[in-house]
Amino acid sequence: MIRVAVVGTGGIAGACHLPALRAEAHRAEVVAVADVDLGRAWRFAREHGIPRAYSSLSELLQRDRPDLVHLCTPPGVHAVQAIECLKSGAWVWIEKPACRSLAEWDAITAAEGPGYASVVSQHRFGSGALHLKEIAPLLGRPLVAQCVTTWFRDHDYFTVPWRGRFRTEGGGPTVGHAIHQIDVMLSILGDWAEVSATTATLDRDVEYEDVAMATVRFTTGALASVVTSLLSRREESYLRFDFTDATVELRHLYGYRNENWTATTDLWQPPDDRPSSHEAQLGALLDAYQKDERPPMSARQGRQALELATGIYASAHRRRPVTRAELTPDDPFYHRLDGGAWTS
């Protein structure tokens, strides 16, 4: 059995991670949880039949020696916690956003061995996205794409202490919400070359944007528009891919099945109907663990969406197009998405 620990017992742990782990109960066993609030940790443990609970990640790692850690904590502590898990020898699966900057992701990756770090990107793993990736080379050249995340988060959403600030959350909806749709777009279209973006804070009391718009040019020459909002009363997640020989579209909100896709080609015939979910990605992660090979959404693959998000912030701040090649350790945005330096 693969020994699993869950760190952070907020909403995402109970709603998404525990159901996914229950589906893999034949090969994965949750042995412990940790949360800064020990009482909450124990309530979570009792609710889900988990034998041990801790207020300290370090103590959990030392006492239980898990094989895999699910990090469900706020983004501001992901990098430090992921590196600690990796140094203990554990693999780590990190909720999005994986960290606050490219610098932090590269530090996480540098700490790998023998364990690996992977980021939650469940929408890549539904049968629709997997099928589109498989047949995309048969649809002709990619020409135009639309990547839309128009969601709604009210003012109360941002009263959680770690939300609304670059230092504790890393960034706004571009990196925290739209990153799911951005990631699927990148899985189909590959590397981007240049981005031109505008961000604005129109109605929420936050340090970062609540609306963003960007135009992305890919190395293939394809162009994409990326629209992100947390102010949209009618919520939708929308992706459109126009190839020379077909158009494929996806409309959903927080998760999709095959019925959410449409296509203008007879080649669109997904072999099964697996919803996008933590369960779908966790299965692939555990397969990699059992084979002792790098899991999906680690290293460069796990970096892709964060890199484009970084380009969007840099372009909006500089009011000019930004190339992917610019985002090196010499660039302030490599270290922080508002272009500043972390303060205590």
From TrEMBL:
<dbReference type="GO" id="GO:0000166">
    <property type="term" value="F:nucleotide binding"/>
</dbReference>
<dbReference type="InterPro" id="IPR000683">
    <property type="entry name" value="Gfo/Idh/MocA-like_OxRdtase_N"/>
</dbReference>
<dbReference type="InterPro" id="IPR052515">
    <property type="entry name" value="Gfo/Idh/MocA_Oxidoreductase"/>
</dbReference>
<dbReference type="Pfam" id="PF22725">
    <property type="entry name" value="GFO_IDH_MocA_C3"/>
</dbReference>
<dbReference type="InterPro" id="IPR036291">
    <property type="entry name" value="NAD(P)-bd_dom_sf"/>
</dbReference>
<dbReference type="InterPro" id="IPR055170">
    <property type="entry name" value="GFO_IDH_MocA-like_dom"/>
</dbReference>
<dbReference type="Pfam" id="PF01408">
    <property type="entry name" value="GFO_IDH_MocA"/>
</dbReference>
<protein>
    <submittedName>
        <fullName>Gfo/Idh/MocA family oxidoreductase</fullName>
    </submittedName>
</protein>
<feature type="domain" description="GFO/IDH/MocA-like oxidoreductase">
    <location>
        <begin position="139"/>
        <end position="246"/>
    </location>
</feature>
<feature type="domain" description="Gfo/Idh/MocA-like oxidoreductase N-terminal">
    <location>
        <begin position="2"/>
        <end position="111"/>
    </location>
</feature>
